[in-house]
Specification:
This protein is of the alpha+beta class. The chain has a single domain, classed as Aminopeptidase. The protein is built from five helices and eight strands, in the order E-H-H-H-E-E-E-H-E-H-E-E-E. A hairpin with a 2-residue loop joins strand 3 and strand 4. The chain starts with a strand and ends in a 7-residue tail after the last strand.
Amino acid sequence: MREAEEEDVPFIAGLFKLPHSREFLNEPGRDAILALIEDPQSETFIIEESGEDFGYFTMHDRDWLFDLGVLVVKTPGRGAGPFAMRWGIEQAFQKRKAHRVSIEIREDNDRARAMCERLGFKAEGLYRDGFRDAVSGEYKNLIPYGMLRTDLRTA
């Protein structure tokens, strides 16, 4: 993992164009990606595998609360997603002393939801029509997931 930089914007933008990404995420423009990289309350990372850029991961530090944001990888099923999530959880709880880590996942993204649940996140409700697909205009439900520091012993 390394911090994302302005030079990474084309790589990050390309990840959002991949079919497995487009299915569940809206494609941000260059300016939105750059604004997130420069946002002092956000942290953006490039996931590397064998020295090659492989994915993108964001976290938002809200003092005692951490939000895990976007996680997108070049090739799903190779373990980069769970690696990044574990890394983010460790950063939040062990290094930053957060009390709570949260993430929102589209209800129809079974793979991401299963990963979160395997890592110890608990589903905490349903945001009806909480996501709007920028291309189709369709609304999709979001499921908020949370993990408390005390949940770590079961994760």
